[in-house]
Amino acid sequence: MRLTPTQMAWRAAQDIEDGAYVNLGIGQPEMVARFQPPGREAIFHTENGILGFGEAPPPGEEDWDLINAGKKAVTLKPGTAFFHHADSFAMVRGGHLDVAILGAYEVAETGDLANWSTGPRGVPAVGGAMDLVHGAKRVAVMMDHVTKDGAPKLVRQCSLPLTGVGCVTRVYSSLAVIDIVAGRFVLREKVPALTLEALQDLTGARLHLDGAVGDLVAPDL
Amino acid sequence: MDKSLPDLAAAVAGIEDGMSVMIGGFGGSGGPIELIHALIDRYLATGHPKNLTVINNNAGNGHVGLAALIEQGMVATLICSFPRSADPVVFTEAYKAGRIALDLVPQGTLAERIRAGGAGIPAFYTPTSYGTALAEGKPVEEFDGRPYVRERWLKADYALVKAHRGDRLGNLTYRMAARNFGPLMCAAAAVSIAQVSELVEPGAIDPEAVVTPGIFVQGVVEVANPAQEEALNRAGARYPEVPA
Question: Where are the transmembrane segments (chain B) (predicted)?
Answer without folding.
Answer: none
